[in-house]
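During the no-cost extension, the postdoctoral fellow (Dr. R.K.) reprocessed legacy sequence entries with the updated structure-token encoder. One reprocessed record is reproduced below for audit purposes.
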Amino acid sequence: MPRATPPADAVALARRTLLEGVGAEVAASFPGITRLGGQVVAALYLAESPRSMDELSAELGRSKSNIFANLRGLEAAGIVEHHRLPGARHDRYRLRGKYPDVVIGAYVAKLRQLVADKRALVRSSREILGDARGPEASALRAKLDGLGGTYDRFAELFALLPPMEGPLDLEAIIDGLPRVALDALVGVVRKALG
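Re-encoded structure tokens follow.
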């Protein structure tokens, strides 16, 4: 008969599993943020109150310099914020909103920036190409025009949406959609996927 896991071990194992899973997810999604950065996100999510760098270092068993570097990346991505209480010597860190909304909001902000950057890249490449002639220039122009059109369509979608900075409550959006609209969206996605 298998031995039951003692409750304290089960809690520690479940916590470690969440830290590792969120660590891997965030590291894979945000260049410059390591697995440790994702573990910081999970630790802040699980914390009852904001944490200092010292507390995060002790909890995650990593150096303060490594924690600090990841906190800076997480702040730049809009996932974490810091504050200092009056009279305190150290900053305290917390998520900018509830998890996973804060990460979803950062994904959307990253995607919006990516679209803007790619539109600028296509425009720049098109300007450099100018009025060049010949089969190679024509082929490149066609590729750039097609790519530019794709990114322009994405930009149109973002222009229809309100500015989204910070956490994005995807659950509330889904809950707020009439079932017929959600079904139609799912149908369009399925058709696009083939």
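The CA atoms of residues 32 and 66 lie 12 Å apart. The chain has a mean pLDDT of 91. The remaining legacy entries will be reprocessed before the final report is submitted.
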